[in-house]
Amino acid sequence: MRQYLRVLGHGDFRRLWTGSIVSTLGDGMTFVALSWLVLSAPDGAARLGLLGVCYTAPVLLGGVAVGPLLDRFDKRAMLATDSLLRAAAVASIPLTAALGTTPGWLPFLVAAAYGLLKMVPLAGFPAAIPQLVDESELDTANALESLSFSVAGVVGPAAAGLLVGWVGAANVLLVDCASFLVFAVAAARVRRPLRPPATHGGTRTGAPSGTSALRAVLRDPVIVATTLAFMAFNVAEGMLMVTAPWLARNHLSGGATALGVLLSALAAGEIVGATFAGQRQPRGSRVVAIGLMQAAAAAAFLSLLAAPHQLPVIAGFFAVGALSAPMTVWAQSLRMRRIPPELHGRGFAALRTLMQATPPVGSALVTPLLVGGHLAAAAITMTAIAGLPALYLVMGVPDGDPVTGARG
């Protein structure tokens, strides 16, 4: 625990990390609330797949714009502005509910706004980490960033599952609105400027354009291989995120509470995995260690075959989280060390956009399987998509030179 206490001793990192936990707590509640609003319609299963696409597909468009902005403006202002915009979007549903009736299209519009702006914190926080902690503390700081998602993911879905029945799905979104406001305040209270590196004249360090930056990053074979593997894994997770509410609605007892338990189990596993990864670096090749973790996490998707038995399915969700968190932490530290500081904003935005853009593929792929009741086929497909790319990492990836940003 000493490593964690040392990193949290950096006041600015602690402020940003705390705000992130509160914000992601609201996010975890919002997914449950939006899913339950959509499932209340007669054609809920088909609409749920569309919600998954709306929630994730706009990430691609937003990520293209976010990278250059993070490398041009102070990340504190970017994170605060994003939080205020998403607070306004989320508040629209309880507001319309209080005034009369929430339009059927509004949950999809809110989900799209989430996706469009999602890359601001997903790229902004990790791009800021090297400016807030020492280089030797990157693994621990990245583990804490992962824990900010996981801890909130345990509490958020479980609390939402209970609150939906007490106050209604629309009013649960008020909590997420408040959480965004907390994150905006936390970002504003960070004292250290989080601007890009500057030259002696006070201007930005010469850096390639967005296209050149992406081209430079993608010259690194390690980054390419791990990014492609993570893209495939996220397709499977996109399938899982649609399957979870479908299972809770049709095969597991408890309804919304069961959905909260499944998502909380996934997040609890991530807590265990991230805590482990933040204290222990992999022996030998980091890339091989990432591949082994991904292969094991892929096998855990097969636990869906145990439905309607609830405990094995919950254990499977926990295993997916516990095994996928270390690969995420180790890969993020790897990228921070291989991508030059002046490319951190665009580099992380480009890579995380690519990885976050693939869950809609999974959402679209699994929807017809679930509508047809083919749960076994869905589980096997998830395992194959997530597991096969991991084999390439395990077999060994040529370790080229880290990205230099120079033209080749």
From TrEMBL:
Subcellular location: Cell membrane
Family annotation (Gene3D superfamilies): MFS general substrate transporter like domains
UniProt-listed InterPro entries: MFS_trans_sf, TM_effector
Keywords, alphabetical: Cell membrane, Membrane, Transmembrane, Transmembrane helix, Transport
Entry-linked SUPFAM superfamilies: MFS general substrate transporter
Any Pfam family matching the protein: MFS_3
Membrane topology: Multi-pass membrane protein
TM region(s), chain numbering: 21-39, 45-70, 166-188, 222-248, 254-276, 288-307, 313-331, 375-395
PANTHER family in the record: INTEGRAL MEMBRANE EFFLUX PROTEIN-RELATED, STAPHYLOFERRIN A TRANSPORTER
The protein's name in its UniProt record: MFS transporter
